[in-house]
Amino acid sequence: MTFLIFLRTLILENMSDSKTYKGALSHPIFEYISKASKNLQLDSYVIGGFVRDYFLKRGTPKDIDIVAVGSGIELAKEVARLLPKKPKVKVFKTYGTAMLRYSDIEIEFVGARKESYNEDSRNPVVEDGTLQDDQNRRDFTINALALSLNKDNFGALLDSFNGIKDLESKIIKTPLNPDITYSDDPLRMMRAIRFASQLNFIIEEESLNAITRNAERLDIITRERIIDELNKIILSDVPSVGFLLLHKTKLLERFLPELTNLQGVDEVEGQKHKDNFYHTLEVVDNIARTTDDLWLRWAALLHDIGKAPTKKFDKKVGWTFHSHEFVGSKMVYKLFKRLKMPLNNKMKFVQKMVFLSSRPIVLASNVTDAAVRRLVFDTGEDIDSLMTLCEADITTKNPVKFQKYHNNFKIVRDKIKEVEERDHVRNFQPPISGELIMETFNLKPCREIGQIKDAIKEAILDGNIANDYDEAYAFMLKRAEKLGLKRE
Question: Across the strands, what pairs with 111?
Fold first, then answer.
């Protein structure tokens, strides 16, 4: 028994950098886990994102992963028993994991394990294993870092794959052969690119090449899991970092061909058009500087997808993309449906932004009250989002043009504010209802009622009458007279 204890201590010393990081474990939950581990006579470690983010100084985590060399489920139950408020333990027997919440932190417990995979699934065959086995199965060296929660070496760092060095060098690499790592679980390819985008890290060259070699393996991953990673890339500070890597490794075309179809510049009779793929990435980066709204960022990503199917060359005017906003908005629904994304108001918001994306640009050259009223009416509460998108769409490198376009959009914004304060057309309903029209002219439901209502709305938007009951009522009487209707 003495020899086994000596051997275990020797292994831990070789795996550790001999330093302890008790400061990382100042949260009370770690003392409870340490005590529970001692009670069950098993070793436990905090591993993965918590440890990585501690060294990156990324702030307070919302979730913690605990590995037990033994039963993670039993450890979770023992921790819950020791905690003052006895939190409920959720057990996932299929995966051999358990989870509890403590002080707004989600803690997941799993037994140390080794894994093997079938070619057609990312769900592994799991066996009990050692801490080394568990570190081997991790996706990246920076996520294989572990801190001991055991009494005899509490806070010791166990770094089997030089993860600390990779953190310092800002490198993403796999613990084992990257072809095996990515083929076993292809979602790791998306995660590698997501971490590169979020952390501004570089993916090791061999690892990056392995992603390209295994790109087709992504097809076994559910659309929901892919979009979960993609959303994190979109929400990163500079989303183009992730999208350029997705494109370079041939992953992007496997789930978002509408975007990759925008790449390329055609030339006819010496006339070219801009590369709309790289333009789109610039727009997404621009909007990322001004908003964290995921769905507005999606709108920026998709605002030009209608240009690929509508691109034509006209000898008189050159390259055209007629109705690309309308076509693009229709493509949004099909894209969201295929990728198992929400088909609710979030999708409709993206559709609206894509459909209206050029309206303020056209308006900027001739800012009339009527045009502004119609824009505000059609956009409703999303007018500010639309203007933010249009301002992000300015990617010219000519400083004079850049300033001119922004000045024009400032004029549009000022006019929107002026018109809205005066006319109140945002989401307005005409002051005259269908019921009032029916009562006034003793009508049953008929076409003329809709005609009168539409005429009143158009008159208000054109500025011919105010958004006012009395003016609208007088207009109704005149319009009805033209239709041959008599007041009762």
Answer: 68
d(CA 69, CA 12): 13
127 or 303, higher pLDDT: 303
DSSP-based three-state secondary structure for 202: strand
419 vs 192, more confident = 192
Rounded to whole angstroms, the Cα distance separating 96 from 109 reads 9
Give residue 423's pLDDT.
Answer: 75
Hey, how many other C-beta atoms are within 10 angstroms of the C-beta on 266? 11
**Do 87 and 104 meet the contact criterion of CB atoms below 8 Å apart?**
no
- The answer to whether the CB of 82 falls within 8 A of the CB of 30 is no
- pLDDT grade for 13, boundaries at 50, 70 and 90: very low
* 8 A C-beta contact, residue 226 and residue 234: no
Return the residue matching tokens 């799993």. 110
Residue 225, both tokens: 């899991």
Q: What is the pLDDT of residues 21-31, one digit of tens each?
A: 999 999 999 99
Q: Give the C-alpha separation, 86 to 340, whole Å.
A: 38
Q: Do residues 128 and 96 touch, judged by C-beta distance below 8 A?
A: no
Closest CA to 259 of 331, 199, 197, 194: 331
The pLDDT score that the predictor gives to residue 292 is: 97
CB atoms within 10 A of CB 374: 17
**Residues belonging to the chain:** 488
Q: In the chain, what are the domains? A: 2-168 (3.30.460.10), 170-255 (1.10.110.30), 434-482 (no CATH)
Q: Round the average pLDDT of the chain to a whole number and report it.
A: 88
- Going by pLDDT thresholds of 50, 70 and 90, the confidence category of residue 74 is very high
How is residue 219 annotated by DSSP?
G
Q: Can you list the pairs that 77-84 forms with residues at least 24 positions away whose Cβ atoms lie under 8 Å?
A: 78/36, 78/39, 78/40, 79/29, 79/32, 79/33, 79/36, 79/107, 79/109, 81/36, 82/32, 82/35, 82/36, 83/32
Q: How far is CA 192 from CA 159, 206, 251, in A?
A: 19, 13, 12
Q: CA 141, CA 171: separation in Å to the nearest integer?
A: 9
Write down the pTM of the prediction.
0.85
pLDDT of 121: 58
Count H helices and E strands in the chain, helices first: 25, 16
What is the mean pLDDT of the segment spanning 199-206? 96
Output the CA–CA distances (angstroms, integers) from residue 47 to 53, 64, 127, 324, 488, in the order listed: 11, 8, 19, 49, 80
